[in-house]
Design brief:
This protein is of the alpha+beta class and 196 residues long. The chain folds into two domains: 65 residues, no CATH class; 90 residues, no CATH class. The protein is built from five helices and eight strands. The protein has a five-stranded mixed β-sheet, covered by helices on one side. Helix 4 packs across helix 5.
Length: 196
């Protein structure tokens, strides 16, 4: 039986065309998408403190849309400031005394070396900045430094887990333990530096 001589087709031109179309779409979508949508959208709101934009039932980071709403706000002068949930909590405190003050808690133990401690805190701040860029509702509420122990409280339970995993992956020699609650209580993340 003769072998079928199958030649492989190269898909390089098609792949390059698709990549070019994707890059063009992404470059245009960064600003163009919000600009075209804002004409259709009603009920847009801008947080007075962090400049997050309320759209489609969620708070979003949209700098171009926030700038447009800010310019519009200067013209109309709203009667009162509007805050997103996290900014409202930061300004006014919890809505009632029974509500949880936070949704996630990260506890770091065994931080004896001051240099390592500052590196770990920098890791936490950098991971928190990345999370805040992604979702304006992911915030670090407080970093409580108690010597060898540091307690970080967060507005979202998943953020505490992300911060704990960031510390665990960047600083070897520790043990990470995550405790999820069966009820709607804060997630507890505990990272302990192993003694040398």
């Amino acid at each position: 039986m003769p072998k079928n001589n199958i030649t492989k087709k190269t898909f390089t031109p098609a792949r390059k065309a698709k990549m070019s179309a994707t890059k063009t779409f992404v470059a245009g979508a960064r600003t163009g998408w919000w600009d075209s949508e804002k004409r259709k959208m009603t009920g847009l709101r801008l947080c007075s403190r962090c400049e997050a934009v309320w759209y489609d039932g969620h708070w979003h980071n949209a700098p171009n849309l926030a700038a447009a709403l800010k310019a519009k706000r200067k013209i109309s002068k709203p009667a009162k400031d509007l805050f997103c949930m996290e900014c409202r909590y930061a300004v006014h405190g919890p809505a009632d005394a029974k509500s949880a003050l936070f949704e996630g808690e990260l506890t770091l133990d065994g931080l004896i070396d001051a240099k390592e401690k500052s590196e770990i805190l920098a890791t936490i701040r950098n991971a928190a900045k990345r999370a805040l860029r992604r979702d304006p509702e992911d915030r670090v509420i407080a970093i409580d430094d108690r010597g060898e122990r540091v307690v970080v409280t967060t507005s979202e339970n998943q953020l505490a887990v992300i911060l704990g995993k960031a510390v665990d992956s960047s600083h070897k020699g520790g043990k990470l333990r995550v405790t999820w609650s069966s009820d709607d209580l804060p997630a507890r993340v505990h990272w302990t530096r192993k003694s040398k």
